[in-house]
Amino acid sequence: MGYLVRIVIKKHQVILLFKVNKRAGKPTNHNSMPYIDALSDAEILALTDEQVEKIIKLKMAEDGVKILQKPEEPEYHEIPEGNEMLFKVTGAEALFSDRVVANEVLELLQKHRESLKETSYTHNYHHRFQKDFHLDYHGKPETLGIMPERVYSKDLLASIKEDISANEDIKKRYNERKEEYENSNEDAERIKGEVWDKVYEVRRKQANKEAAYARFQEYLVLSENDTTQAMVFYKKAYSPDDETIQYIEAELLKEETED
Predict the structure, then answer these.
(1) CA dihedral 175, 180, 185, 188 (to 10 degrees)
(2) How many Å apart are CA 2 and CA 32, to the nearest integer?
(3) How crowded is the C-beta side of 137, counted as CA atoms within 13 Å?
(4) What does the DSSP 8-state code read for residue 125?
(5) What 3-state class would DSSP assign to 174?
């Protein structure tokens, strides 16, 4: 059983009418709801923002695009900083717990700086060769020094091990949801853009017409309610298109009818 979706404009509101499948107890969607490009300007103007969002979601559902909220970064278990300080000497592949010892090593390395070398491999890793120690981007030797590094003691690491593991699981699940959202977001944004661009275009056009009618009213007052003369003045000043003129004439007729 098919269904019918019809948009009725009533008192500046849009009412979406569905023909319901009585067996299933819910609307059946074989023909799909009219998309934004199937609506007239008057129908689009009558849409509320909530109804526009519903059109977007229905289109996403029809196209198989997942309706997902952007996941927020979750809260994690608080992990303390390392509780021990070690000292790394540039050029020494070791960390020292005693800064005095680290200084002694640094002095020794500085004294024999010219003898310091490091090795690397050719592109196929078959041949190892030596090169000057730690050259910077400009080809100059890096300054030797001591770099303090915080690390965890065995006891502290053991006490926070479960929290670290839980954080990794939380982060993994978050990344999975984020990836799922990003994969569907491109199509979702395309649909949102199509719909809202059309809505904004129609709303801007209507706002321009209303502004034009307000300007026409000034000439109407100036011409002492002579609509013909007022239109002459207005056309000379603004060179309106046919659609704008038709809107002004329709508004004038509406006012006369109301009076």
Answers:
(1) -150
(2) 10
(3) 0
(4) S
(5) helix
Round to whole Å and give the CA distance between 21 and 119: 77
* Radius of gyration, alpha carbons of the chain: 37
Q: Are 7 and 43 in contact (CB under 8 A)?
A: yes
184: its two tokens: 């569907």
Rounded Cα distance between 104 and 54, Å, is 72
Assigned token pair, 95:
């960390």
- Residue stretches of the chain with pLDDT short of 50: 1-31, 135, 137
Identify which of 21, 1, 2, 5 has the alpha carbon closest to the alpha carbon of residue 59: 5
Instruction: Dig out the tokens for 175 from the structure.
Output: 């990344």
216 CB burial (10 A radius; 0-12, 13-18, 19+): buried
Cα–Cα separations (whole angstroms), residue 147 to 85, 98, 102, 113, 170? 10, 12, 10, 18, 32
Sequence-distant (6+) residues with CB within 8 A of 84 are: 97, 150, 151, 152, 153
Q: Could you tell me the pTM of the whole model?
A: 0.54
**pLDDT score at 84:** 94
pLDDT in tens, 226-252: 999 999 999 999 999 999 999 999 999
**21: which strand partners?**
26
